[in-house]
């Protein structure tokens, strides 16, 4: 039986891997000074010109957010995060989960329904997987936070 004082590790590790893959894709496009994501819908020259940042810095920032998210995911289930007060980690994981729901939700909506972005059905599946992992990671941590508080 799982320890009620510890979150399940697999959702956090799977989320970390997914986020590192995201970071790698963003780094690849940053090196090319392109907006978008490998395998994703193309971003037109007009959209790139209208973007509020230059493509390379924007992609490097997105890459950094992926690496930071992976670090947070791993920290939530390892000794790295034990020094962080549980309420703080819950807030950080909640914000991270809301971000994943936003991005994954757009991928799902466009991939399954079509809103004009260009994501395909398999991108929608990827969005669903990302949302599921993120929600499970948060739920598992929140459950253990309650269990620790009641002991």
Strand-helix topology:
Layout lengths: L8 H23 L13 H6 L4 H21 L10 H27 L8 H29 L2
Task: Describe this structure as you would to a colleague.
- The chain is globular, with a radius of gyration of 17 Å.
- Helix 1 (9-31) runs antiparallel to helix 3 (55-75), helix 1 packs across helix 5 (121-149) and helix 4 packs antiparallel against helix 5.
- It has 151 residues and is mostly helical.
- It is built from five helices and no strands.
- The model has no long low-confidence stretch (mean pLDDT 92).
- The protein has helices at 9-31, 45-50, 55-75, 86-112, 121-149.
- 70% of the residues lie in helices and 0% in strands.
The largest pleated sheet is described as: none
Number of helices: 5
Helical content (DSSP H or I, runs of 4+): over 70%
Low-pLDDT runs: none
Give the CA-CA distance, first to last residue. Answer: 17 Å
Structural class: mainly alpha
**Succession of helices and strands:** HHHHH
Q: Give me the Rg, rounded.
A: 17 Å
What number is the mean pLDDT?
A: 92
Report strand %. under 5%
DSSP E strands, number = 0
Shape: globular
Key traits:
151 residues; mainly alpha; 5 helices; 70% helix; globular
Brief digest:
This protein is an all-alpha fold. Helix content is 70%, strand content 0%.
